Amino acid sequence: MLADLLDLVLPRDCAGCRLPGRTLCGACAAELGSPRPHRPDPCPAGLPPLVAAAAYDGAVRAALLAHKERGRLGLAVPLGIALAAAVRELDPPRGAVLVPVPSSPAAVRERGQDHARRLAAAAARRLPGVRARALLLPARRVADQSGLTSRQRAANLTGALRARRRLDGLPVVVVDDVVTTGATLVEAARALRAAGADVVGAAVVGATTRRWSRSPGWAQPLSIRSPAV
């Protein structure tokens, strides 16, 4: 609501298409509304059931970058709604916790926010009985992931995260803004399982388009549990 009021007082261009008047126009927001099961190709071992709200392309990519890199914090609302829709497809039990993939302290300082944590909180507000908690911490420094292959990303991230505390039996969903190879989600799931958590699945806003278009089963019904009506 605050973002909508700011748009009325100080109109901003749509983060997706640059048309004036809204943080995210209706047409661009509609691109966020088709959550699908997703498996990167190749799919890394240990990846939990994964749902993506949209392809990481066009307006979706522009909106995620504007939120993450340019401080368009009002975008947390529509992006959080999209993330919540992806989480619903996993049908998490009541009491489940959304656990964002943590950014490095240096990235948080540079951006002035932890974008995944903000999206997790926005999504949890739209999911009755679900909370968002920052239960993961960086365990060591990792190299820049840009340009790394799937295998190199996996090696770079192995052991990079740890849980803040024991999580015995706690149902959790790992959440992030974007999935590329799936290596980050695998590492997050590993760290949570090592602390005793029950990893129900993972949910993201965007899946990179090359792997999105090649993933099997988009014309088929969801292969994971359907949410209760």
Can you give keywords for this protein?
globular; Rossmann fold; single chain; 229 residues; two-stranded antiparallel ribbon; alpha/beta; 36% helix; 9 helices; six-stranded mixed beta sheet
* Outline: globular
Give the assembly state of these chains: single chain
Indicate the radius of gyration in whole angstroms: 17 Å
**Run of helices and strands:** HHEEHHEHHEEHEEHEH
Strand content: 15-25%
Structural class of the secondary elements? alpha/beta
The total strand number stands at 8
* Percent of residues in helices: 25-40%
Question: How many discrete structural domains?
Answer: 1
Biggest sheet character = 6 strands, mixed
What is the topology?
Blueprint: H1 2-9, H2 26-30, E1 36-37, E2 50-56, H3 58-69, H4 76-89, E3 97-100, H5 105-111, H6 115-124, E4 131-132, E5 136-138, H7 150-157, E6 161-163, E7 171-179, H8 183-194, E8 198-208, H9 209-214
Parallel strand pairs: 2-8, 3-4, 3-7, 7-8
Antiparallel strand pairs: 1-2, 5-6
Helix pairs in contact: 4-6, 7-8
How would you describe this protein?
It is a single chain. The protein is α/β, with parallel strands linked by helices and 229 residues long. The protein has a single domain, classed as Rossmann fold, CATH 3.40.50. 36% of the residues lie in helices and 18% in strands. The protein has a six-stranded mixed beta sheet, with helices on both faces. Helix 4 packs across helix 6 (115-124) and helix 7 (150-157) runs parallel beside helix 8 (183-194). Mean pLDDT is 83; it is low at 216-229.
